[in-house]
């Protein structure tokens, strides 16, 4: 199994949505050498006991998964970051929210590939449990774009039918492509 | 690809919306729910979602609801997809790669026939019929 950065982001941002957060912010800062990602939510947070078990693949919140008792998202991510000599941290305060931050060296041989970030981000923006979801994406030297779910919802009217999702997909792909077009100039 | 602005997105949406409302007969009130737990993502659920949107776009179907859920409890046959079409049995398909996603759009949504070899939701005899549940 070779998960990409997009896969890891999908997984951990969905954790934030499922934590009851009304606000989730994802920052992807792609420098020349390092990629730094941060997910900040204002969800229910975790107490110290839960926080100690977030990297245990055989631990999951009661009732979260139908028919199984595993929680693989954060353990997979932390292992991937460790393999790529990166850094990983989770900070959480019950009732206030959780911040997951990780970074890795893009040139490390074991770093996960980026995957289809445009597809992952448009899928997250359209997530039915997302409320106020904002993405800040930078690629060094001022090249950046932002996505705000509420703004996109206002522009497209809704984010659940195939028609609007295809338009959303085109929009995010154009932002991502623009980032790299500028990068190549 | 030129970077699209929000105003361009709004214009594009306004331009296609009227046309879509006129021609959208197939797929109306149908729902496609894609399992996007860790297991689904690892098995390629993102690409499955992409394939559904592409197939629906190819067939000019714009009003089908396409949403995502967590793990459906069928990790061994990911990616899993629940398909709800009025007047048809609701089923969960398993091992839905891009090719199968296209087949589900063409068979289940448009031709109204179940894709029986991918049903994994406790496939009871009453939902799998020789005529594909038609």
Q: Name the pair of protein chains with the most residues at their interface, and give those residue counts.
A: A-B, 47 and 41 residues
Given as residue ranges, the uncertain stretches of chain A (5+ residues, pLDDT < 50) are: none
CATH-wise, what's the superfamily of the domain at 28-118 in chain B?
Glutaredoxin
Question: How many helices of chain B does DSSP assign?
Answer: 4
Task: Name the structural class of chain B.
Answer: alpha+beta
**Rounded to an integer, what's the Rg of chain B over CA atoms?**
16 Å
Q: What is the CATH class designation of the domain at 28-118 in chain B?
A: Alpha Beta
The helix-strand sequence of chain B is HEHHEEEH
Radius of gyration of chain A: 16 Å
CATH class of the domain at 5-115 and 132-147 in chain A reads Alpha Beta
Structure notes:
The complex is a heterodimer of chains A (185) and B (134). Chain A is an alpha+beta fold and 185 residues long. Chain A is 38% helix and 24% strand. Chain A has a domain at 5-115 and 132-147: Heat Shock Protein 90 (2-Layer Sandwich). Chain A is built from six helices and six strands, in the order αββααββαββαα. In chain A, helix 1 runs parallel beside helix 4 (117-125) and helix 4 (117-125) packs across helix 6 (162-184). The radius of gyration of chain A is 16 Å and the shape is globular. Chain B is α+β, with helices and mostly antiparallel strands. Chain B has a domain at 28-118: Glutaredoxin (3-Layer(aba) Sandwich). Chain B is built from four helices and four strands; from the N terminus they run H-E-H-H-E-E-E-H. Chain B has helices at residues 6-23, 38-42, 45-58, 98-111, and strands spanning 31-35, 65-69, 81-84, 91-93. In chain B, strands 2-1-3-4 form a four-stranded mixed beta sheet, with helices on one face. In chain B, helix 3 (45-58) crosses helix 4. The relative contact order of chain B is 0.16. The A-B interface holds A 1, 3, 6-7, 10-11, 14, 18, 64-68, 72-73, 76, 115-116, 119-120, 123, 126-128, 145, 151-152, 155-157, 160-167, 169-171, 173-175, 177-178, 181 and B 1-4, 6, 9-10, 12-13, 16-17, 20, 24, 27, 36-39, 41-42, 46-47, 49-50, 52-53, 56-57, 61-68, 70-73, 75.
